[in-house]
Amino acid sequence: MKKVMNLVVAALAMIAVSSCAEGGSNSPADIEKSIYSQFQKGNFEMGMELYFDNIEKDDASNSDASSDERQQAVKEFAQKTKQTVEAKGGIKDFEVLEEAIAEDGETAMVHIKITYGDGSEQPESRRYVKKDGQWKIVFGK
Question: What is the spatial distance between Cα 54 and Cα 43, in angstroms, rounded to a whole number?
């Protein structure tokens, strides 16, 4: 549970409003769109599920997290994300500004802009790596 909670705390520090994406998405930009679409609809737990599903996993460090611990972390992270987003009037819009895939096709960076209901905007950037043919969010590296 400690590793899962450290993951949640680090993610909150890394991103004010987390992002995630549906598994099986074709590109890093698709993953970001999937996550923020869920957040925009108010489906914070689904958005966090997508985020956790798309984090690059180090098998050695993540193999001890049980399903219950993961679900608890998703719920806690979703609640904190909901509070942050609702305090800003919800997500009015989000836009992928750039998806930069490296020449080798193995890493990428996605830059987005979130517009909140209160009119404030927030840029977000997230790194990705291709692992076993799937794009994964690089977390805390």
Answer: 17
